[in-house]
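re: that complex we talked abt at group meeting.

here r the seqs, copy pasted straight from the sheet so there may be weird spacing, ignore it
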Amino acid sequence: MNIFEQVESEVRSYCRSFPVVFNRAQGAELITEDGRTYIDFLAGAGTLNYGHNHPELKEALIEYISSEGITHGLDMHSSAKAHFLETFHEKVLKPRGMENFRVMFTGPTGTNAVEAAMKLARKVKGRSTIVAFTNGFHGCSGGALAATGNEHHRGAMGTSLNDVFRIPFDGYLGEGVDTTEYLEKLLNDPSSGLDHPAAVIVETVQGEGGLNAADAQWLRNLEAVCRRNDMLLIVDDIQAGCGRTGSFFSFEEAGIKPDMVTLSKSLSGYGLPFAVVTYRDELDIWEPGEHNGTFRGNNLAFVTAAKALELFWSDDSFVDEIKQKATHLRNGLERLVRRYGPESLKVNGRGLMSGIECPDGEMAGEVIRDAFKNGLVIETSGAHDQVVKCLVPLTITMAQIDFGLDVLDKAFAKAAAKRERKVS
Amino acid sequence: MNIFEQVESEVRSYCRSFPVVFNRAQGAELITEDGRTYIDFLAGAGTLNYGHNHPELKEALIEYISSEGITHGLDMHSSAKAHFLETFHEKVLKPRGMENFRVMFTGPTGTNAVEAAMKLARKVKGRSTIVAFTNGFHGCSGGALAATGNEHHRGAMGTSLNDVFRIPFDGYLGEGVDTTEYLEKLLNDPSSGLDHPAAVIVETVQGEGGLNAADAQWLRNLEAVCRRNDMLLIVDDIQAGCGRTGSFFSFEEAGIKPDMVTLSKSLSGYGLPFAVVTYRDELDIWEPGEHNGTFRGNNLAFVTAAKALELFWSDDSFVDEIKQKATHLRNGLERLVRRYGPESLKVNGRGLMSGIECPDGEMAGEVIRDAFKNGLVIETSGAHDQVVKCLVPLTITMAQIDFGLDVLDKAFAKAAAKRERKVS
Amino acid sequence: MNIFEQVESEVRSYCRSFPVVFNRAQGAELITEDGRTYIDFLAGAGTLNYGHNHPELKEALIEYISSEGITHGLDMHSSAKAHFLETFHEKVLKPRGMENFRVMFTGPTGTNAVEAAMKLARKVKGRSTIVAFTNGFHGCSGGALAATGNEHHRGAMGTSLNDVFRIPFDGYLGEGVDTTEYLEKLLNDPSSGLDHPAAVIVETVQGEGGLNAADAQWLRNLEAVCRRNDMLLIVDDIQAGCGRTGSFFSFEEAGIKPDMVTLSKSLSGYGLPFAVVTYRDELDIWEPGEHNGTFRGNNLAFVTAAKALELFWSDDSFVDEIKQKATHLRNGLERLVRRYGPESLKVNGRGLMSGIECPDGEMAGEVIRDAFKNGLVIETSGAHDQVVKCLVPLTITMAQIDFGLDVLDKAFAKAAAKRERKVS
Amino acid sequence: MNIFEQVESEVRSYCRSFPVVFNRAQGAELITEDGRTYIDFLAGAGTLNYGHNHPELKEALIEYISSEGITHGLDMHSSAKAHFLETFHEKVLKPRGMENFRVMFTGPTGTNAVEAAMKLARKVKGRSTIVAFTNGFHGCSGGALAATGNEHHRGAMGTSLNDVFRIPFDGYLGEGVDTTEYLEKLLNDPSSGLDHPAAVIVETVQGEGGLNAADAQWLRNLEAVCRRNDMLLIVDDIQAGCGRTGSFFSFEEAGIKPDMVTLSKSLSGYGLPFAVVTYRDELDIWEPGEHNGTFRGNNLAFVTAAKALELFWSDDSFVDEIKQKATHLRNGLERLVRRYGPESLKVNGRGLMSGIECPDGEMAGEVIRDAFKNGLVIETSGAHDQVVKCLVPLTITMAQIDFGLDVLDKAFAKAAAKRERKVS
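got the structure back, here u go
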């Protein structure tokens, strides 16, 4: 029995899919203790958009640590924080017409950013209900968990999860049904059971929910419903943000203007714990320390995050690069679908947040297990774990994408054959 | 207007007490951008027990980063995690008769560890109520916040906080009243309104609550009430643990055996976001991934945490060192009390988690503002911010303690004189 | 200022629509202190299915009171209770294949019966979620209110309303959308956000919600979804039961077999406070007194209720009578629709639970105010008070129906004309 | 198997203590179907303060029914309601300096009155927390149940019970501890965990809780704490009101002025379902119909209630009568205590809400079972059912009291002997 089985909690999960011990990593490569190399199509569930241990970020980080820069300072002012704020303001907010957005450093986890956003929305509007969507995932701490759809997580709470109203996500009621119309009908109906919400929280592409990409028009309709009904629009961009879908924020393509945005995962650029909520300054009615936490404002993350913004978001070249890779990856996935199940398989998602939906979790599970045997770290998502999810580093090389596609090709070939045998 | 006022959220708080920009730090010293040095009696609110940027931890960290060790790997196995688990098992759990304890990596924040502990306790017992104490602080995310006493934080939630029953902490009902007897009376009374709890969550010394130190006998009584009434005992050792009160766990002195312990803050040893819950293996009924989060298992923190355990907890020398410093500090604080208010001031706390309780928050506020002007970073705590809280690095030098005591001497002299003028 | 304005709470409501003082009543007639007679198309919001002060019930009641029969006996056995139970068993349960149903006497209000049903369902299934529908009304006490849709009532609670999941009622998503399919999709989707419910609570015709009559097939589909997903089906028959829609239970037409049924309003037959839940005996896992209340089991109501069951439900003649009157009334309503707004008006409901839906609450309000001036007591319902609701006593005469229809004819004529002027 | 066992729910409870079928009743006498007479020391758990079927109330009731007075009229104005309001205003409110109190007709159950009071308090203050006490009983519907202490009832809810903070009742922490000081300490402590409450709800004598009578000074202290801390004081006088303790309201002796009072049980005077909340007019900020219910305003109860007020509360003679009977009863109970257990037994309660506390529920259970065999209907109360509770009709004769005391004497003799045998 190894040390993990002996001492680590049964709650551990990813390690069960990948029963090796990783030691080093670089870019899209993960290397085990015994020297085997895997290509990473998981990327820390979207945390490693710039790959593992990006050399320039690593250099900045080591330099900062070596110079005895502040590592932990609660939310005291630090040079590193100032530099991050300036960079985020200049490279992210300003060019996107969000120069009036404030940045709140929450506890350095996505769920904590969601908690903060939900609290602030309720405080601003003086109402308790938040609208969330089927298959949404927003974290596992008590406040955020109410908005998360997954019963596996919800069931672990052990108390009532309050004041979230669930609306079907785009497409949930079938093609041609605009579920924002259902939302608005409820809002206009004083006995619908939906109390006037403070806000709507939405992912533009539902990562954990199965790479369900909301249509741009649906997002615009949702924004309009929020405006007409005095509700805040919160985009939870923790997984889909930081370039994953092709632009810094995932909602840029739709042209909407959320009131609040949560960011975490790839924000530090280096896989360091970090999270923020950014929102229009009129909403900034927090009293000092009202929402707090020891690790809000992670100085090491300030350093790598600022560096990552400078490196990748100073001009449009990275956006172009993502687009090319996304096209390449999605073409590859479409090819697999055509080859192994034009009726039963389907490409889901948007940009480099794409994958293949299988008829069930069993098939998807076989694919990823087989892929792992052939050197690819990749996971499933979706309500039934039925989606093979390609969450590659955005800095991955074309060759690495091709390697992954080849591995997947073989895995799908096998799984499809097995499935056919079973069906017939 | 500086960048912080322009862009950072109004929720920022510590920076308001210390309106400078810190740049570097070493041990108990904080250095500003313009070169001024402060002695740190705050230590990241208990996060920097081994001081800022401890040289050997720094070295280990840089070495790990340089070698491209895994930085982020979700909860996949890594060499760094294995090494941390082995070290924690050997240096912490085993010598304390806790070799059967499991370690759960939660999101890397204290509040997330508390959420996990509360969930697991409810799941194990199949009951929803948790007992928490007056002036308790356990974090600000929805689940943990229900257990936190502070109305400032509670009021920000905007929804009902469920299923926590509040009991007066040791001493709350005056000397000579054992509040565990009240708890047991409620438990034995089927119409008390206290539904059979799953667990009790307690801090042995309430950090945010004003350095209220529970008596060892009271803790033993509390443990006995838990045993007699089939409730789990959770010690939230996030602030008081990792040596702060003189032993690794704060409850060792009382000789109790909690069922679960939460740790965070100083666990990484370097101020890195990190948190665990450790609990008896029989309680480990989690299903894989039931409570999760992107940053659970921070590899950089594994490295520094393991190193810190090796450095400081391989023998008893650190315990002795803390004891000497605590005696020195507390003697100094007692001297201040005798000098400036034997009737009105009072030394609170235990070990290096000690401070001076003032008659009100106004006086305590004057003391820390004056101290800051003279080069000391120090904060207040308590329901009315009335306690001047000395949370020095455990690695501080005697000379630095003396410097701090001198600064506090002058600050108390001034504040006491002012108070006297006001009263007369 | 009269005594009502001086002393009665501002919460009073129906009296504002009918600013007279009623003194006596008989059948479908209400007589004021100053001798004016009104025809009653409100019938105590469905409480007076057998009319006011039915002579034979009155006689039985007076006889019982005169003989000093037990009036109040908590839930002790009484002859009156035995007689009611026997009669209910013989006349109601047995003929409908429900001989294995138990009868629980809750507090004598509809909301209390709903509370009891929801509690028992949760206890039986060991789960907390209950599914309720848009525009549902189930009462105003804390437990039941969570299932009620009306924001006017919900907003008065002042705390979180827990563990009810709202599903669109039949027709809510437009013609051709079977909302039970949406419910089942949520149930089969482990990240839908709908935790496995203990039960579904439904009105077959939503009285307060605007006389929305569920299609019989939809009800059968709902029952099937409950069966396939191990959920209890609770029919809240408080307003639609006791003959209102043409059969004793409103769900008989659809041929479904609910697990639990709540009854109140017309159950006593005489307007006396009374309520029961009846459910399959396997579900009867209550411990003695677990849900209680001082007035559960109202002996005067036992007497009139048993008498009413004997009088009206011993054979099918009353069912036939209701059917004829319903046809007559609905024909009359259809005529009004054709005459005053074939495009804008619409007949809603089922059986003698029918009315006319107006384009808005303003028009419906004008109709009922005008009707009252001409001797008709009638109210609106619906989310926007847009439905003119004809809740006549089932014992009303054809002549009285005609009187009412005449009054409504004039009122609609006026309101329609006014509306036309406004539009043009 | 009789009809009750066959058809009535397992939730039935009192009938299990008294396994006979009652048929008629008069004053303090209950007569079974087979002609046996019992003396009633239970009085409908305080619902029959004027005895069963009081002749003058009966006469008024029959007259009203015979004249076809309105039986059910929702909350429309009726002559009977006007008369009740005038009488209540003149006989109850005005003489007690409460002429500015409004009367709200809630659903006709105590729990519904409590729900209404809690809602209104929360609405008035814009806060959600309500303070309730250990051993308090306020009803079993979801909102009120949160304030009820009994785990038997609470456990049946199946969802979180929100926003009630429990404080030890007078005497709970032992003699000499004023628990209102604990309450005030919590209120003045911003990290106590007690969020600023909207109101305190209290019974002056806890009926279900074991006849715990609050000291008059404690009640005055509680009122003062409410005033100093801007909280409403709600006296739940459902069981202790209507003369039970010697004055119309139970709090008159203490000289306090609650902001709201709930009344039910004996308010109708005849055992009819009826309940009100009465409160200072400034608090009357309800919107029409915001809290509603079909049976609010029970006209038959208006008739008997007004008559009862006229008969019993027009002068002080009834107060004197209660006082004499209470003295007589309590002397008798004291005698029993001296005789059968001066160390182990104890007289509890106040006025005609008195009883004997036994060392355990077993002994009390034996007493009442034996008493029933000898012709006395009497029940226990208290957390462990350890109090033999004498809730006689206030109109009982001295001879009937003596009969009951004799029966109790023999029952205690037997139970005490048995207990002694067991102990030795």
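couple things i noticed - Chain C has 14 helices and 17 strands. The longest strand of chain C covers residues 22-26.
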